[in-house]
Amino acid sequence: MTRSTILDGNSFSSADAGLLPSEDRELLERRRRVLGPSYRLFYRRPLHLVRGSGTRVYDADGREYLDAYNNVASIGHGHPAVVEAVHRQMRTLNTHSRYLQHEILDYAEQLLATFPAALDTVMFTNSGSEANDLALRVARHATGGTGVVVTAEAYHGTTSLVADVSPAMGREHPLGSFTTLVPAPDAYRRGGGAQLGEWFAGEITAAFGRLRSSGVRPAAFLADTIFASDGVLSDPAVLGPAVRAVHQEGALFIADEVQPGFARTGASFWGFARHGVVPDLVSLGKPMGNGVPVAGMVGRSEIVDRFGSEIPYFNTFGGSSVPIAAAQAVLDVIQRENLAARAEALGDVLRDGVRAHARRHPAIGDVRGAGLFLGVEIVSDRERRTPDSALALAVVNTLRDLGVLVSVAGPHNNVLKVRPLLVYSDADVALFLDRLDEALTLGSAAVPL
């Protein structure tokens, strides 16, 4: 059976159950019995977490772990501003958006002010999956087409529609007949800059041509703007030519900002801004509520208004009082503490530190990313740039044992996917770099040549 790159890359196998203490084996059995087999756990030895605070999480034995992966609690676990906002709103009122309320409008105006002026309308959902689902519905309504182009390892969510445009789910979940793939813009192997952008635009044009030849009219190019599932591909030259090609085909560009947005990729605040483009629609999710389910779709009013005037939309919890309170607190913290600029500066330190490690560890083939979103490509041969998934997983699991949490990405699961929380300190970055150096040494020794 073909495994999902996004779900199975760094997942627990029941064959390793014997490595776990009896209490965790009992929890595993209970999960299997009541949750079924679809869920996945991280790591060869799954973590039994019971508490989180700031940049740390703690297991049932009280052991501390530096969280270098969680894109949900992006401003820190248990952030007091979010806890207080949610508590206060829960005590006051929690209802849906079909009543007049100031709070949803105050937040929407503050959120939209972070976008280019053309992106002037927001609709709220519960999750990034729902936001992408809604964006595809809007794009189809606007264009009259159904065809969608995505990259080869893209992941955009779990609803039926977005699962049909998420090849990272694995071949056991076939793509929709309206979906076609393009290779990801991998600057490490194809060379970066303008030539990569023009090549990528040509691939998109050819993909829409394939859709047309099979009788499918184009609707959208949907892309995570740091191509996280494809291996954290951060070259900022690729989306400009791509968006021009998309518009020439009569389709819309949907920027999936669920992972790169909300200052994750640095001072630009939104991943698409690094590319100098303005999308037609933007999907938001994960970090928006710092753990409270809230998400949204931002778009051009001329596109969204047409959809809304012809198709009513309502989402019971999308835009309800408590999630909006959480989202407001998160945005206030990011802006008040200037976390976008902080992510830019700390990200530079982080990447420079990993590149210094590369001088001692030949397994590091490439270091890339933006802001506090890092991809470290692990290879067995630098000259040939041969992916080494076994070593990457060994490093991830060794880091787990050393008290640092990361995961993997990319078609070969050989790229360390590192997403430090936006509230990292200089000491947190130094600790991460120290433990990564140690894990690369121990992991290389554990994987046979």
Automatic annotation (TrEMBL):
Keyword Transferase: yes
Presence of the UniProt keyword Transferase in the record: yes
UniProt xrefs under CDD domains: OAT_like
InterPro entries, per database record: Aminotrans_3 (IPR005814), Aminotrans_3_PPA_site (IPR049704), PyrdxlP-dep_Trfase (IPR015424), PyrdxlP-dep_Trfase_major (IPR015421), PyrdxlP-dep_Trfase_small (IPR015422)
Keywords: Aminotransferase, Pyridoxal phosphate, Transferase
Top-rank lineage group of the source organism: Bacteria
Pfam family, one: Aminotran_3
Entry protein name: Aspartate aminotransferase family protein
The species this protein was found in: Pseudonocardia aurantiaca
